[in-house]
Design brief:
It contains 8 helices and no strands. By secondary structure, it is mostly helical. The protein has one domain. α2 packs parallel to α8. The protein starts with a helix and ends in a 7-residue tail after the last helix.
Length: 212
């Protein structure tokens, strides 16, 4: 219970940023505000000490928060932070592989792994974006095949994918589209929120926080 204020603060920061981004908040403050929502998720995960898995989740969230902020000043630098976060997430999800995934679940993971980079290439025509998308799709596929709940962690990973695909679409066919811009942040932030809370809830149910 004492850790839930981190979640409440994250929700306030994440949802309020979406509104603040449309206002006249000075640039540096807005960049910090953007990173705060997921940074607080990192703090929430880190508070579950001394769990190695919770701390790895905190690393994933922290790299996401860094990516959120750096992306505003250096697109490639932000992408590197997110890619590192995807790699850390893949390592976490693979430690919790589902023992007997159904054929349909395997097919969905394969379709995600191959389809996301292909769509990203078609939207942008950029090899660097397609390379990054392999990390993104690997993260989502690993989440889908993990033993974490699909309707929290798996869905959150897919929301993250959808958010990034909208970013790529704005670099091409949806350039200047207001609807795409409006959806990018809520898909991303609430995707991260579902991932974080879903992983922590599963670790707790398995007794990893027995000291709490």
């Amino acid at each position: 219970m004492e850790k839930r204020p981190w979640l409440a603060a994250s929700l306030v920061a994440g949802t309020s940023y979406w509104l603040a981004a449309k206002g006249q908040v000075p640039g540096l403050w807005l960049i910090a505000w953007k990173g705060l929502g997921v940074a607080l998720l990192a703090a929430y995960a880190w508070a579950h000490h001394p769990s190695r898995n919770a701390h790895q989740l905190a690393l994933v969230m922290a790299l996401g928060a860094i990516g959120d902020m750096v992306l505003e000043v250096h697109f490639a630098g932000g992408a590197v932070a997110f890619l590192l976060g995807h790699l850390a997430a893949i390592a976490l999800y693979r430690r919790f592989r589902r023992e007997r995934p159904a054929p349909s679940q395997k097919a969905a993971a394969i379709a995600t792994l191959l389809g996301v980079p292909l769509i990203s290439w078609q939207l942008t025509g950029r090899a660097d974006v397609a390379f990054y998308a392999f990390g993104l799709s690997g993260m989502a596929a690993a989440a889908w095949l993990s033993s974490f709940p699909r309707y929290r962690v798996g869905l959150g990973a897919m929301m993250f994918v959808a958010s990034d695909l909208l970013i790529f679409a704005r670099m091409g066919p949806l350039a200047g589209t207001a609807a795409a811009q409006m959806l990018i942040w809520p898909l991303y932030y609430f995707g991260q929120f579902l991932i974080c809370t879903g992983v922590i809830a599963t670790l707790r149910a398995r007794g990893e926080f027995a000291h709490e």
